[in-house]
Amino acid sequence: MAPQVNLRPLEPDDRARILAWRNAPDVRAYMYADHLISPEEHARWFAAIPDDPTRTYWVVEMDGAPVGLANLYDVDRRNQRCSWAYYLADPAVRGHGVGSYVEYWVLEYVFAGLRLAKLWCEVLASNEPVWKLHQTFGFTLEARFRRHVVKDGEGVDVLGLGMLAADWKAKQAQMAERLKLRGFEPPTVP
Ligand SMILES: CC(C)(COP(=O)(O)OP(=O)(O)OC[C@H]1O[C@@H](n2cnc3c(N)ncnc32)[C@H](O)[C@@H]1OP(=O)(O)O)[C@@H](O)C(=O)NCCC(=O)NCCS
Question: Which residue in 26, 147, 159, 183 has a CA-CA distance of 20 to 30 Å to 123?
């Protein structure tokens, strides 16, 4: 049976957990900033979240246990768009459909909930499973930023992907079927 997946708002108790996740090699490898984040740097970042209307974070829970983080950032009402990112901290919970569930949830939140016109994201070009997953959901490859970030001392390429509200409308039913095939009930987002 598929696990129960839930996205809930951040709580104060998540602070230490997220620092540990974010500094784990299996997460750091996929992020732009791959230095070890100090508790002070993390505390400043965490404390600023509630007052920042351009960012929203959710903890992903699997069968009631926290397993990852999803977020919107650069929420830009004037241009009706925002960006997003997510990770599942423990590699053992990856590859079982949880990421697809989260992707569907975020798309519903952005287009049906916030009624924005566009969702976009950036992915390291080397992270092929993730940009392919985004394309499966209907994202279009819009940019290749050459030598855009330095990872392990080397400049690497980044891909920019975007989805318009109409793209999601065209894909949603197919993606709902995809979730059902994996045993998940497609979420409706408030
Ligand atoms: C991205 C991530 C959240 C996806 O979650 P997930 O639970 O692994 O995703 P799913 O199980 O729904 O898999 C979706 C598809 O991607 C494929 N996939 C996922 N990870 C893969 C990997 N490492 N290698 C090959 N394929 C992979 C799956 O096979 C699946 O394809 P299919 O449905 O055609 O079989 C998760 O892999 C992760 O946290 N990765 C590290 C962090 C990261 O890269 N975040 C994105 C940064 S922009």
Answer: 183
